[in-house]
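Our consortium's second objective concerns turning raw sequence data into structural hypotheses that experimental partners can test. To show how far this objective has progressed, the report includes one record in full. It was chosen at random from the queue rather than selected for favorable results. The single chain below, 71 residues long, was entered without modification.
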Amino acid sequence: QLGAFRDYGNAQNFLSRTREPVTAVAGEPRISQVKGLWRVYVGPYDNESDAKRMGDRLYAAVGIDNTVAQH
């Protein structure tokens, strides 16, 4: 997960600013609503270890803090 927002517009703004560099590293980011928050994420991945590795790659390449979350 790259970000979580209460407002859909904020999630869209974040996605539009980060789509190109994130896609180059991790594939197309998406938005989904989970428990009242709009979450911007990439994946899914086969397991938590793969997800964490991708999170590390994203941080190194793009500088986006992230967390592993199930959707």
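The partners drew two points from this record. The first strand starts at residue 3 and ends at 5. Strands lie at 3-5, 30-34, 37-41. Both points have been shared with the crystallography group to help prioritize constructs.
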